[in-house]
Amino acid sequence: MRITSQELLHFRNHVKTSVNWAPHLNVITGPNGAGKTSLIDAIHFLCMSRSFVSTTDQYVINSDEKYFMIKGHFEGKIRSEFDVSCSYSRGDGKKIFVNDSPLDRLSDLIGMVPVVVLAPDDKKLTLEGPIERRSFLDSFISQISISYLRDLIDYRKVRRQRNTLLKDFQGSVSVLKSYLEPWNIQLVESGSRIIAARFAVLENFKAYLERDYAMISGMDLTTGLEYQTFCEPSVNAQDIQIQYEQVLEQTIDKEIEREQTLTGPHKDEVIFYLDDFELRRFGSQGQHRLFALSLKLAQLHYYSDELDDLPILMLDDVFGDLDLKKTEILLNALQDHEGQTFITSANPVPFEEYVDFDGNRNKFFSVKDGVIKEEE
Known about the structure:
This protein is of the alpha/beta class.
């Protein structure tokens, strides 16, 4: 899958920008604040219906305007070509269109154009709490499994309704338990499928992670990961469901006391290891950076093997933390990958030493004050 052209209107410091992208490598350079990240963040909007930079859509609008609009033309194998547009206004909210037809649900966009993003904030994946790793895992699997995304949406709705009941119900405990029963059934069904899918993907993902960490780091260290949940994980959702029902019955009194759902995949954790040492606790800053980079490269290669269309890869200001040897290794790996890649860089990197910019396969751009220019 690749994006061939793009338009931005009132998107951050891009007042009105149009660009035609190369099918393979697109290198975008310029000073900090020039609008490099905004260009690839706009692509992320068209793939995932949200920003990977801002948590709130309204902060993306140019400060002097009331709305933004972004458009992109995509080409792929499953869908030969199609257009995606996204608009947001302070009054009407966000709307997504595919070939000028509105999407009823924003979630319908997920997986249409698979995308992998490596950004400076990805160090949170290994340094911070489990919510970061669950978010990574959910985004990872949702792009390759519509059923997983639907289970995730259903589970969150059920847990929210169940928590409301636990918090607001004023009657006896016995009556509350009877009211909780239908929610428990839905919670167990969707939650068990989520755990089974996470376990299956992570088991297959281990080999990709080990290979890509060895490639990018050049170190003789063995990577590992451990999926932690409330039960013995399995690829069989029915096996998990039996355990889930038992644990839910054992913890119901505590849940009533605390007025919240205490058991389920929303509490899961993924532990990363280097040579049997837990990365979060004992890893150096350099090891954290390389591990995060390896996670995203492994995701890229996993998608490439699992999907009919290759994903789009975005690397936002990654090369500033890499020495020349690792820069060479990474650029060579990106050139070997046939998919479309976007690279932003504020620091001077000798891209021309490793990338052939003669012809239309790869392009080099500069950005200044929200204006993009293709360089010869």
